Amino acid sequence: MLTAESERPQVAVKKLGKGTAYILLHGGMGSWNHWARNIDALAEHFRVHAIDLPGYGDSPDVDKSMSGEDYRSLVCRAIDEIIADEEPFHLTGFSFGGALSSCIAAHFGDRVKGLSLIGSGGFGKHEGRPPVNTRSYKSAGEDEAKYREIVRGNLLAFMLSDPKTVDDDAIFYHGENVRRTRFDSRKVSLGDTQRTDLANITCPLQLIWGENDVTAYPSIEDRVMMCRERVPNLRIDVIPDASHWAMYDSAQAINALLLDFHLGLTN
Question: Are 12 and 30 in contact (CB under 8 A)?
């Protein structure tokens, strides 16, 4: 088990490709498979490290009492174990992983060559947002068919807005990820940390949202405004008809945007 005092935390990493390192951080109730439709495209140009964050997927458990701030520090130390001393790397984070990625970029400074945030957390609590109509996974009990039904419904309510994109793979990935979640990502994703972290990054920044992302409350424009106050020369990409898990329902668009941004920083 990893604790706030773990000096050299080891986490599970899916690696593919050669070249400059590129780290991918998944969202809450997730794992490396949040990037299942993106890794191959990125690995044609980079050495991809798709991480299972502490308390997720194949990575070790974490102390349940761990604070969001201690978790952020733990993840920074885990990155230090994955990437060789002083080696530069590119970084992309989704949702909960976006809140962590800004922290990492601020911590590692000029070693981070470029930062992309997709549907990022770290903007504080969603005060006043209408409730998202999700159901408790525990209510399925031992009924696997009911569990899959709940997974599908929750994906549509929160992650994927088009029923056609909620395929068997999406249900399998999310269903397994939920069962293997051992850390409450809200300790990080609902923190108001982007204001400070973005003010302290030194790398180019790309912000990506799906047009239908329910987490961008009160609006994508509101979040862009806050970010521009701290990083005036950032890049904004909004994907039409995409939702929160845009890397899945709009993989081709996401892959093109990430490669255009990050390859442009390697020249």
Answer: no
Task: For residue 212, give the amino acid letter.
Answer: N
- pLDDT bracket for residue 267 (50, 70, 90): low
Reported as a single tens digit per residue, the pLDDT across 186-209 is: 999 999 999 999 999 999 999 999
Residue at 189 is within a domain: yes
Q: Is residue 6 part of a domain?
A: no
Map tokens 């106050």 to a residue: 229
Please enumerate in sequence order all residues whose Cβ is within 8 A of that of 146, keeping only pairs 6 or more positions apart, or say none. Answer: 139, 140
Per the confidence metrics, is the pTM higher than 0.90?
Answer: yes
Residue 150 lies in a domain: no
Q: Which residues touch 198 (CB under 8 Å, ≥6 apart)?
A: 102, 106, 205, 227, 230, 231
- The count of domains in the chain is 1
Instruction: List, for residues 76-95, the tens digit of each pLDDT value.
Output: 999 999 998 889 999 999 99
**φ, ψ of residue 49 in degrees (nearest 5):** -120, 100
d(C-alpha 86, C-alpha 214), whole Å: 38
Q: Is residue 172 part of a domain?
A: no
Distances (CA, A) of 82 to 21, 72, 140, 254: 10, 16, 38, 25
Q: Domain containing 57 — which CATH number?
A: 3.40.50.1820
Terminus-to-terminus CA distance in the chain, angstroms? 41
The residue segments making up the domain with residue 24 are 13-130+184-263
User: What are 86's two structure tokens?
Assistant: 């002083």
Q: What Rg, from alpha-carbon coordinates, does the chain have?
A: 17
